[in-house]
Amino acid sequence: MERAYRILVINPGSTSTKVGVFEGDRSVFTKTVDHDAAKLAEFPDVSSQLPYRRETILAALEENDIDLATIDAFVGRGGGLMPVEGGTYEVNETMLEHARAGANGVQHPAQLGSQLAHELASAYGKRAFVVNPPDTDELCDEARMTGIKGVYRHVHLHALNLKETAIRHAASQGKRYEDCNFIVCHIGGGISISAHRAGKMIDGYDIVGGEGMMAPTRCGGVPVVEVLDYLEAGHSVDEVRRLCMKSGGFVSLLGTSDAREVTARAQAGDAAAERAWSTMLYQITRSIAAMAGVLEGKVDGILLGGGMVHDAGLVAHIERTCGWIAPVSAYPGEFELEAMASGAVRVLAGEEEPKVYTGVPVFQGFEG
């Protein structure tokens, strides 16, 4: 009988950290550990939050009788890293240095994932991993190019949930992820839409760089000339960056990031809310169709994950507008904790070799 490895996973968010314990693929404990927002605001950067978050997490685990000595491996969300191929990476010193600094230029609580996993693993003499970090980069060459010499496209996506959704859907069909082509969407506070061909995420959008779809907190793609006019009108570069990541989309248009509030307002006759919601759905449809072209129409399924997929109207819209491309399957919520545990189990069971994080970006430009 195969051993059920015991894995603790850590997924830091803006004001909370999700933790879970898995035995094999079975969840035995999950908890969202809340952090005091005022306390977090006292820290000068994300990495300096580490001691505070660690103590609140340890207190919650102790309160729930989780014995860390029984854990076989610790897995954290892999933020702050340079672009890498997908897979499971063992935490090393280079990774920790990059996570502490936010080497990818994006300050996000996910930077704490590898650091927390490493500290706990070190205390108990166990191994620490990250799985499919946010900067997973498997783009095909054509997806990297722009029309400006020396300027290339990069992707920031919900890679962890996107790839796990695809892996699980393929298994449900009796297939391997590596033998399928999927369009995979994460539709939540941020929206990622990606093309997966034979086990690689070959195209997607830079959702923190102002590409793709409007989302609850993100402006999505805006013509460059319009952005220049916006800057010349007196707005700052920092303000534009915030529109890309935190204050765009529904926040800018409607003053809220709550999709449920937006749909309620739209149903009550709020024209601005109805227009914003319809525009987001339109842009999702357009982006899915674009990924179908990338896959040359050979699409085995359109897979939907993320919190907004709980909205039946959203799913019905995508089925109506994109069902002609391929069957649409909805997986409301996310598999992020499960994905992290599964990656560690595959390594511990000898099914997969852990990858080594070198800190060297997977893409460094074209020759010639």
TrEMBL record:
* UniProt keyword Nucleotide-binding, yes or no: yes
UniProt KW Transferase keyword: yes
Known CDD domains for this protein?
ASKHA_NBD_BK
Q: What is its EC number?
A: 2.7.2.7
User: Which InterPro entries does the record cross-reference, listed alphabetically?
Assistant: Aliphatic_acid_kin_short-chain, Aliphatic_acid_kinase_CS, ATPase_NBD, Butyrate_kin
Listed GO CC annotations: cytoplasm
Its main subcellular localisation, reduced to a broad class, is cytoplasm
Keywords attached to this Swiss-Prot or TrEMBL record, sorted alphabetically, are:
ATP-binding, Cytoplasm, Kinase, Nucleotide-binding, Transferase
In the record, what terms sit under GO molecular function? acetate kinase activity; ATP binding; butyrate kinase activity
Q: Which positions are tagged coiled coil? A: none
Q: Which reaction does it catalyse?
A: butanoate + ATP = butanoyl phosphate + ADP
Subcellular localization, as worded in the UniProt entry? Cytoplasm
Q: Identify the enzyme class.
A: transferase
User: What HAMAP family does the annotation carry?
Assistant: Butyrate_kinase
Protein family: Belongs to the acetokinase family.
Which PANTHER family does the record cross-reference, listed alphabetically? Answer: ACETATE KINASE, ACETATE KINASE-RELATED
Q: What is this protein called?
A: Probable butyrate kinase
Specify the species: [Collinsella] massiliensis
- UniProt lists the gene as buk
